[in-house]
Amino acid sequence: MSPRWNPNPDMRTGCHVVHHLHVHLVSVTTYRRNAFTDAMLTRTGETMREVCRDFEAELKQFNSEQDHVHLLVHYPPKVQLSKLVNSLKGVSSRRLRQEYSTHVRHYLWGGHFRSGSCFAGSYDGAPLTVVR
Hints:
Layout: E1 12-13, E2 18-19, E3 21-28, H1 38-54, E4 58-65, E5 68-75, H2 81-99, H3 101-107, E6 119-122, H4 128-131
Antiparallel strand pairs: 1-2, 3-5, 3-6, 4-5
Helix pairs in contact: 1-2, 2-3
Organism: Streptomyces aureus
InterPro entries: Transposase_17 (IPR002686), Transposase_17_sf (IPR036515)
Protein name: IS200/IS605 family transposase
């Protein structure tokens, strides 16, 4: 591919496609409880980067507070967004429950770490400060 044809380095190409797909995801804890510690947030970011790699996606930005996380993900068109979101939430929740079980049980009950809902909005690659 010639640089003249694709001047934007964020554009990705495949055999029959050129794409630039981004999504802003927000996931909250059950009941918006302040359940995350700094160590848990660091681990959540690492886990979500791994999951994105498995989907051939890229976690561009990760930002969080004690009751929710923001993700900016660059993903290929072959990925179903619902499956990516379910994997991100499911794998990170499972690992946090395994590694921080005492803390998680203290704040959350019923085996659910995250709310069943999630915000997903498309964006054009703007930084998180602009998206907010």
